[in-house]
Amino acid sequence: MAWTRAGQIGAEHNDIAEWLLNGSTQPTVSSTKKQTGTYSVRYTTGTDSVGKSFTAATQIRAGVWLNHNSSSITSSSRRAWIFRWGAADGVRWNNYGDLLELVVNSSVVDSITDVTGNFTNVDQWFHCGIVIKCHASTGWASFYLDGTKILTATSVNTGSSLAAIYFGGKVSIGWLPYAYFDDFYVDTASGGEADVFVPLRQFGWRIAGGNGTNSEWNGSDGNQVNNFEQVDEDPPDDDTTYNYTGASGNQDSYNTTSYSILAGYIQTAEIASVLARKTGSGEQLKVGFDDGVAQSLSGAQDLSADYSVIWSRHTTQPDSTSWNEADGNAMEVLLESAGSY
Fold it and tell me: Spans of biased composition, class Acidic residues (predicted)?
């Protein structure tokens, strides 16, 4: 058994299409603060949680970076989610009570003073992690702050499975005036994983920066020349510039801009990510990488009529070797049309 990446949000698409909203008032994309890249997800007092849905699993872990400026609260209603799952379960900041609280089945099962780990410091990035094992009587959940377990509960009813997890949002009034979340991810497992710290992941970001070796799609400029120029904008401009194809099996690839691995980090994976949509009923898309000799592609993924994020996580290069900064910067992002046209 092992962890499998089920979803992630880095906000770099500057687009809400990749978020699952739990409520009615969504947060916004902001460039005011960011842990990596250019953008993060910004919450204020009235915003609800967003996150990811996935195939139901009996064990999950999730991580996210949080930066807040809510150190002085006077309202007894001031509570905000860090993580949320189920109907009313999660990890929340009870700022009026000066507590961080773990809530299971709507009951506080563990709490700790909110100065733990300097959490009350404003304008500082903290890594928050949650690990949950689902079971009706022997379930457990633990919350990690910057890699240290500070909240935990065992022998509790955490349900039979989870199919979504959210970050941020209001319990009652919410974050004041702002909180920023970045580099969220969720992994799933079928059970048996230990209660250990949630890895502190950071997401690098490259965009199309040159032509690749494959150019079988048509650009919105009417040709197959310099196709990268139709998909190199940040944030994406949707139907202003784009590439398209009308047949299955056509490939397009792009060289990318460079990224420097942050000091103290090692590269564990590369993720091919694209905003795409369909105009018919059966079109699909494969995404991956091309190193000039070998290719690595995901399975065919369904598309919707509106732009949505299609992505694939690759823990090794197309030749099965481990990733490194130089090879990652030299790799082409590869698209292949699939399905029926």
Answer: 230-240
